[in-house]
């Protein structure tokens, strides 16, 4: 079967960026198990809300980004008739700064994560900055089952409800998609000598890492920002994520931390009163009456965790929340102070507060399937380990939810079996190369990231002050902090060295 590349009849779409917010839900019979969502962008401090959001740089415009579609096999790993069915996978290219195939100019390929590719354009500042610096081609590839890259004949919702079709929704299939697109594009451009660096953040950073390991003949290097590739099975303690959230709040304000820690039992105490749920609904100005106290606690979990994961300058949402809690303008009792933290987070006292604010339908549903199949990230905590109520990771309850919703059991050991993880330093020293990991230690997911150099070419860069994917997105101010500027410069120096080594070998061996 011929695989064809199609150019859209229209230019690249430039839709407003969706909020990709953190999901931190405690398990019940009808709710997913506890697991914070990944995602490059998120929280109230989403870069699209910032004053300094270049979106499109002065030297690039909407017309510079061209949309293409690739006829992608539904299944790369079988040869049954259904495997040959195709769907249109979207990718977007900016040729403006590329010095061309004759110069063997590089290709920067951004591997889409669990959202529409529209969410990445203009907000992954690492891409336009560095394609100009290196005279590179700028490429974005959408992850299958997100955005417009849905199996033919289905909507996103229909595809996820179809047990057969959603079986093709996996990281391995997505990596093979990326390999097909990059190979085809290089061939069409006669750019076989152009080195490719794959770039990704969060889940996309995991994909970039795994792509370099699985397809080293296609990608010369990988840059993975905030990729928690060790947060599987028991490679790190299950409570690592909430421990970092707790540390972030303790450093911001001990009184704020203590108020949050005390608030959970206070919510339960009020909820157990005869009209307790109604009282809580009024206290927190909720748009809809509470049906269960756990809904409010889940919402607060999301708010605190999102604040920590995306604790970006200059707003620093953890400090903003704690300023509200410590100020207690809406009452001096514990719950009044907690509500003041919510008001401070949003920047104004809204008419009412929606407990669904942290949910994005497409990304929530798609990620729900991914975590119920292979992306089993075991996050939980016991009593008094963190500022959160005890919520240990219990695989049976996790499994029961997934079986009830999708009719399949998760495969909690598949990621480490397929991509590795155990003894990673010893293993990658033997055969891995040219992977750059970056992290910010205020990001709870950094606890599952690579924080030390593995070899001379598998390197780790981190900052104590950084948060989730901060180094690849625009800062919230035109005056970036010095530590962030230094981190970005260090990353570029490493990538530049790899390109120089590649071109030296290219000239030497022809």
Mean pLDDT score: 89
Poorly predicted residue ranges: 1-31, 43-58
- The helix content, as a percent range, equals 25-40%
Q: Tally the helices.
A: 16
CATH architecture tag of the largest domain: 3-Layer(aba) Sandwich
Percent in strands: 5-15%
Region (Disordered): 40-59
Biased composition (Polar residues): 46-59
Family: Belongs to the peptidase S28 family.
GO molecular function: dipeptidyl-peptidase activity; serine-type exopeptidase activity
What does this structure look like?
49% of the residues are buried. The longest helix is centred in the last third of the chain and has 28 residues. A 9-stranded mixed sheet has the order 1-2-3-5-4-6-7-8-9, with helices on both faces. It folds into 2 domains: 263 residues, 3-Layer(aba) Sandwich (Rossmann fold), CATH 3.40.50; 174 residues, Serine carboxypeptidase S28, SKS domain (Four Helix Bundle (Hemerythrin (Met), subunit A)), CATH 1.20.120.980. α4 crosses α5, α6 packs across α9 and α7 crosses α10. α1 links the parallel β4 and β5. With 510 residues, it is α/β, with parallel strands linked by helices. The radius of gyration is 23 Å and the shape is globular. The chain contains 16 helices and 9 strands. GO terms for molecular function: dipeptidyl-peptidase activity; serine-type exopeptidase activity.
């Amino acid at each position: 079967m011929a695989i064809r590349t199609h150019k859209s009849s229209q230019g690249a779409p430039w839709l407003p960026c969706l909020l990709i917010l953190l999901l931190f839900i405690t398990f019940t019979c009808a709710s997913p198990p506890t697991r914070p969502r990944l995602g490059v962008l998120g929280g109230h401090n989403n870069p699209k809300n910032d004053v300094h959001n270049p979106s499109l740089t002065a030297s690039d415009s909407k017309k510079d980004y061209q949309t293409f579609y690739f006829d992608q096999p539904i299944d790369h790993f079988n040869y049954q008739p259904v495997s040959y069915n195709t769907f249109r996978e979207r990718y977007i290219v900016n040729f403006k700064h590329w010095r061309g195939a004759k110069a063997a100019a590089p290709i920067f390929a951004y591997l889409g994560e669990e959202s529409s590719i529209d969410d990445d354009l203009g907000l992954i500042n690492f891409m336009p900055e560095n394609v100009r610096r290196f005279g590179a081609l700028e490429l974005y590839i959408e992850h299958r089952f997100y955005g417009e890259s849905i199996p033919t004949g289905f909507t996103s919702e229909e595809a996820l409800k179809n047990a057969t079709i959603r079986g093709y929704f996996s990281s391995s299939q997505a990596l093979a998609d990326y390999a097909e697109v990059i190979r085809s594009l290089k061939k069409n451009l006669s750019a076989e000598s152009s080195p490719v660096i794959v770039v990704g953040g969060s889940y996309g950073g995991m994909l970039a890492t795994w792509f370099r390991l699985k397809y080293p003949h296609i990608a010369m290097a990988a840059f993975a920002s905030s990729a928690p590739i060790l947060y599987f099975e028991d490679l790190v303690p299950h409570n690592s994520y909430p421990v970092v959230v707790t540390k972030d709040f303790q450093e911001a304000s001990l009184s704020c931390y203590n108020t949050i820690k005390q608030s959970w039992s206070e919510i339960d105490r009020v909820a157990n009163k005869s009209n307790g749920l109604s009282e809580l609904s009024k206290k927190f100005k909720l748009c809809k009456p509470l049906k269960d106290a756990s809904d409010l606690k889940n919402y607060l979990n999301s708010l605190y965790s999102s604040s920590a994961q995306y604790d970006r300058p200059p707003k620093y949402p953890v400090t903003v929340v704690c300023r509200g809690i410590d100020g207690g303008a809406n009452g001096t009792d514990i719950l009044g102070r907690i509500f003041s933290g919510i008001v401070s987070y949003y920047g104004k006292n809204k008419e009412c507060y929606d407990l669904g604010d942290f949910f994005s339908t497409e990304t929530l549903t798609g990620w729900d399937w991914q975590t119920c199949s292979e992306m089993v990230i075991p996050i939980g905590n016991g009593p008094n380990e963190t500022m959160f109520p005890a919520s240990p990771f219990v695989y049976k309850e996790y499994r029961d939810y997934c079986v009830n919703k999708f009719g399949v059991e998760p495969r909690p050991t598949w990621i480490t079996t397929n991509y590795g993880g155990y003894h990673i330093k010893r293993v990658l020293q033997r055969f891995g190369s040219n992977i750059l990991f970056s992290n910010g230690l205020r990001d709870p997911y950094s606890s599952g990231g690579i924080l030390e150099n593995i070899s001379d070419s598998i390197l780790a860069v981190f900052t104590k002050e950084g948060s989730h994917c901060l180094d690849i997105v625009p800062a919230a101010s035109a005056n970036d902090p010095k530590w962030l500027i230094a981190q970005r410069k260090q990353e570029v120096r490493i990538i530049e060295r790899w390109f120089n080594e590649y071109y030296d070998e290219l000239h030497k061996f022809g």
